[in-house]
Structure formats: structure tokens, C-alpha cells
Input
Amino acid sequence: MKLEEAILRFGREKGNAPASAARRRVVFTNGCFDLLHPGHIRGLEQARQLGDVLIVGLNSDTSVRQLKGPARPVIPEAERAEILSALEAVDAVVIFDELTPREVICRLLPDVLVKGGDWPGDQIVGREEVEAAGGRVVSIPFVPGYSTSAILQKIREGLEKEPQLKGQRASRADS
Output
């Protein structure tokens, strides 16, 4: 798939995109974004502040399964892309099948490559290519307490609890 075909939304004027900018500073970040949570939102907002356009590389369903296991993703790639592209901070979403976004990064060569602080700097895919092209790599602080895996574990634990007896109504707090 060509990069141009893979971008779901780009060029749509959003309130945060300068309409008259002759040269926009492109920021790129990536991830699975299986269950969107506040850690994702905060990271995307921080990434967007580093430039004029934020492009998000999204792991395809195939690559998420390879990285996270056969039970993932929970939400299909088209729906994850739709959710991400609806966020004000995100200007474009590109889906990639590979395990890493190296090919997308090499074709795009963003001005700023962003990854969460939980990634060691020497393990950030695309670092060499972006820096060689004059761009920079930024590690943003990891937001503790948020994790898709932890959310899924909480759901699993909740499902493993004893089922409610037939005829009992759930309290308002349970529904």
C-alpha cells in the first residue's frame, strides 16, 4: 500500500492547523492504540505541540497480533484509525503492516519523531533516518497508571468474578 493511500485524513483544516503556513513542521508518532486511554491522549497532545501537523502511524491488526498475541487487537484497525483521526490533536493516520514503522518513517522523514519515555532512546525505530535528514527525536514523559494491557486485565478479572444470581438487579453503581 502506498503511503499516500494509507493516510486516512490529511489536509483537512482543523482548528489547530495553521491554514497559511508555507512550511509545516511534521511530527510523527506511532503505536497500537488498541483501547484509547488518557495516557494515549496526553501523549498525542504533547506530540502535537512539537509541530504543525501530527501524523500517527497505526499498527495494523496483523502487526498488533504479532506484537501482542492472538487476542489482540480488541478494536479493528479501521475503527482505531477512525477514533484517532477524530482527535483534535491528530491530523493524519497511516496504517502499517510491519512490526515497526521504519518504512513509513523513511518515506515520510518527519521533522520530529516522538516516542513515549518508556522507550530507551537507542531503541526508537527511525531515529537514525530522522536525525540524518536533519530532524530530531523527542522522548515524551510516560504517563504512569495507564496501559491497555492493565485495562484488559481488569476486564478479565471482573469477568472471572462470580456471576450475579438470576433475578437479582444490579445496583445503579454496577450498571
